[in-house]
Amino acid sequence: MTRMTRFVPLAAAVLGLVAPLSAQAQNKEGKPTLAILVFENGAFGKDARDYDGLSKSVPSFLVTDMASNPNIRVIERDQVQKLVDEQKLVTDGHVDKGSAIKVGKLLGAQHMIFGSYTVDPKGNFRIDARSVNVETGEIEHTDRVDDKVDNIIPAIGNLAAKLNTGLKLPARRVGDAAPAEKQPAARQAGAEKSAYAPVTAGPQPKLPMRVAVMYGKALDLKDKKRSQGC
What we know:
The chain is α/β, with parallel strands linked by helices. 41% of the residues lie in helices and 19% in strands.
């Protein structure tokens, strides 16, 4: 047996040990892990398809808000989307419970959040979110927010706080530093008065709905280019 022949099974054995050890090291933090999937477009009216871009911008904004809590681990949107594309688990923006569970297991997440949004011709906006427990396969929590279309950022910040509370995730204590890249300066303003701070603190900036839609469309284009190897 040559040295190379002996080396191959040895390397395989070592790699087989490294992967579980790496996973254990990540779990030592003891932080609940969650991931957020695309949201389904439930807008109605003749301009309903104009809001397709929110399918990806809503979860992207929600990732930022949830990740401002340093006591939980939120998986990056790009990582989630790459897995979804590779596994072909989402069709026409629709996510079912089974797909959410499969993605959650592959990502090592305990909670998978997905849902839908609606926009009506009068400019009213609503987001419905639900979370599935990856271990039990059950829908463990549902929540919603209602607002006007140009209040999309405050609405998502409100939803993040509701989900953090509803899922009984560790609260962000006053004084806990959120990752700098996850906490826009506009959300650092204002002093918290309670023993625990909400997921996002301070005044929430407004963002025109059309900008949120354009941002989501840009994310979708980026995802398609990556999946096509461009």
